[in-house]
Design a protein that fits this description.
- The chain has about 80 residues and is of the alpha+beta class.
- It has one domain.
- Helix content is about 25%, strand content about 10%.
- It has three helices and two strands.
- A hairpin with a 6-residue loop joins strand 1 and strand 2.
Protein backbone atom coordinates (compact mmCIF):
# COMPACT_ATOMS: atom_id res chain seq x y z
CA UNK A 1 0.00 0.00 0.00
CA UNK A 2 1.42 3.38 -1.00
CA UNK A 3 1.85 6.06 1.62
CA UNK A 4 0.23 9.44 1.26
CA UNK A 5 2.35 12.13 -0.34
CA UNK A 6 2.39 15.79 0.66
CA UNK A 7 0.06 16.62 -2.23
CA UNK A 8 -2.39 13.93 -1.03
CA UNK A 9 -2.91 15.62 2.35
CA UNK A 10 -6.71 15.60 2.81
CA UNK A 11 -7.07 19.22 3.98
CA UNK A 12 -6.16 22.55 2.37
CA UNK A 13 -4.36 23.66 5.55
CA UNK A 14 -1.66 21.38 6.96
CA UNK A 15 -1.04 21.50 10.72
CA UNK A 16 2.25 20.25 12.15
CA UNK A 17 2.82 20.11 15.89
CA UNK A 18 4.96 18.52 18.59
CA UNK A 19 3.59 17.95 22.09
CA UNK A 20 7.14 17.54 23.41
CA UNK A 21 8.45 21.02 22.58
CA UNK A 22 5.20 22.88 21.86
CA UNK A 23 6.06 23.59 18.24
CA UNK A 24 3.00 24.27 16.10
CA UNK A 25 2.57 25.52 12.57
CA UNK A 26 -0.13 25.84 9.92
CA UNK A 27 0.67 25.92 6.23
CA UNK A 28 -1.47 26.07 3.13
CA UNK A 29 -1.14 22.77 1.29
CA UNK A 30 0.56 24.61 -1.58
CA UNK A 31 3.19 26.13 0.75
CA UNK A 32 3.67 22.80 2.53
CA UNK A 33 4.36 21.14 -0.84
CA UNK A 34 6.88 23.89 -1.69
CA UNK A 35 8.73 23.28 1.58
CA UNK A 36 8.84 19.47 1.59
CA UNK A 37 8.31 18.58 -2.07
CA UNK A 38 5.00 17.65 -3.61
CA UNK A 39 5.78 13.92 -3.93
CA UNK A 40 7.43 13.51 -0.52
CA UNK A 41 5.73 10.87 1.61
CA UNK A 42 4.10 12.32 4.72
CA UNK A 43 6.39 10.54 7.23
CA UNK A 44 9.44 11.91 5.40
CA UNK A 45 7.84 15.36 5.24
CA UNK A 46 7.69 15.39 9.05
CA UNK A 47 11.43 14.79 9.18
CA UNK A 48 11.96 17.73 6.83
CA UNK A 49 9.70 19.99 8.89
CA UNK A 50 11.48 19.03 12.13
CA UNK A 51 15.05 19.11 10.80
CA UNK A 52 15.96 22.08 13.02
CA UNK A 53 14.32 20.65 16.16
CA UNK A 54 16.63 20.45 19.18
CA UNK A 55 15.23 17.02 20.06
CA UNK A 56 16.17 14.07 17.84
CA UNK A 57 13.37 12.03 16.29
CA UNK A 58 12.90 8.43 17.41
CA UNK A 59 14.43 5.92 15.03
CA UNK A 60 15.68 2.35 14.93
CA UNK A 61 19.08 3.57 16.10
CA UNK A 62 17.67 6.08 18.63
CA UNK A 63 14.59 4.75 20.40
CA UNK A 64 14.87 7.47 23.03
CA UNK A 65 14.41 10.34 20.58
CA UNK A 66 12.01 12.90 22.06
CA UNK A 67 10.74 14.70 18.97
CA UNK A 68 7.06 13.80 18.48
CA UNK A 69 6.22 15.99 15.49
CA UNK A 70 2.93 14.91 13.95
CA UNK A 71 -0.10 15.89 11.90
CA UNK A 72 -2.83 16.45 14.54
CA UNK A 73 -5.55 16.64 11.88
CA UNK A 74 -4.84 13.06 10.80
CA UNK A 75 -5.36 11.67 14.31
CA UNK A 76 -9.11 12.16 13.93
CA UNK A 77 -9.36 11.35 10.24
CA UNK A 78 -10.75 7.86 10.84
CA UNK A 79 -12.53 8.65 14.11
CA UNK A 80 -16.19 7.84 14.53
CA UNK A 81 -18.12 10.74 12.92
CA UNK A 82 -20.57 10.66 15.85
CA UNK A 83 -17.80 11.78 18.20
CA UNK A 84 -16.49 14.63 16.02
CA UNK A 85 -17.43 18.15 17.00
Amino acid sequence: MARMRAFDFPYEVVEVSCPECGRHGRYSKARFCEIVGRDTQLPNALAIMAKDCEHPRPSVSNINGRCRVNYPQLANLNADPKTKT
